[in-house]
Amino acid sequence: MVIILTLIFCSGYSQNSVKYCDTNKVVDEPVYLLVDTMPEFIGGDENLIKYIDDSLDLSGLPVPKGKYIISYVTVTISPEGNVIYSCVIMRSSSTPISAYDKRAIEFVNTLKFTPGIKNGKAVHMVRNLPIRFEAKRIKKAR
Fold first, then answer.
1. pTM of the predicted structure, to 2 decimals
2. Cα-flanking dihedrals φ and ψ of residue 8, to 5°?
3. DSSP assignment, residue 136?
C-alpha cells in the first residue's frame, strides 16, 4: 500500500487559515522559503513515502466519511535537519481540529531532513508536507 505524499512549495498562508499547531516556538534567525539547495528527507523523497507508509500510526483514528483526509502540514526545518515547528494550515475536510491533524503533527515532528542551504550555509527552511489518511488503511489498523 502506498500513501501518496507530495512535497510542495509553501506559497504562504494567512494567520486565519492555520488549523492546528504544535507550539509557538520562535526562531531568532531568518526562515527561508527559497534556498539554493532544498531540504530533503534522509534517503530521498521515495524513502519518505515508504517511511510514511511503514511508520504512520493509524490505530485509534476515526474512519473518515470519504475515501481519505489530507492534513497539509507546514514545517520549519532547522539547519541541523530537524523539524522544529509544525502547523496544519489546511485540510481536505471542513471538520474542526481533528485527530488526523494531531497525528500528522506528531508524525512530521519525528522526521529528519538534510538542511536547506543558502549561500553555502545551512539555514532554517519552510516546507509543506501533505499527509494523507486513507479510510481503508485506518480500517485495517483497527
1. 0.76
2. -120, 155
3. H
